[in-house]
Amino acid sequence: MTGLAALKTEARKAAFARRAEAFATAGGAHAGKLSEVLAGYRGVPLAGYMAMRTEIDPTPAMAEAAAHGPVGVPVIRAAGQPLRFSRWEPETAMIDGPFGARIPAVEELIDPEILIVPLVAFDAHGNRLGYGGGFYDRTLEELRARRPRLAIGFAFDAQEAGSLPLEVTDQPLDMIVTETRVLSFR
What we know:
By secondary structure, the protein is α/β, with parallel strands linked by helices. It has helices at 3-26, 32-39, 59-66, 135-146, and strands spanning 46-47, 71-75, 84-87, 94-96, 102-104, 109-110, 114-117, 121-122, 128-129, 150-154, 175-177, 182-184. An eight-stranded mixed beta sheet has the order 6-3-2-1-7-10-11-12, with helices on both faces. A two-stranded antiparallel sheet has the order 4-5. Helix 2 (32-39) runs parallel beside helix 3 (59-66). The relative contact order is 0.19.
């Protein structure tokens, strides 16, 4: 393992512990601030995610957004490939997809302008630490090459780190929304 890979592994381990503690003590939904942010973009195609394990859950805000325009969730095609996004609504039939992520049973692809991005850790400069597969970095790079996209990290406050080990391929976020605040980097 290279020096940077080892640093990322250690940063993830610490961040997972902080996130698990925040999840255990938080109780209830925390998508209020996210809903407030998304209200300013009604009707704009949006991609969220289906929360897994101790991730903060964006589905209440996604459900509100789905009443005004298309909302999708990520579909993993293969390791090393960018994500695709299949249309989701609160009543959509879901199945288990790769890596345990829930995906729509019937695929209908959308092209999101806004992406709600899960993360393990973030810093005060809009950087994120993901799970290590590079899916969102590849996806954001591909989408941003075609036209601007708004990438919103969604996390618990406790997931903030003083600094993160970064690579040139790591895609920055435009905004981070937590249960208590909104950080903008545009």
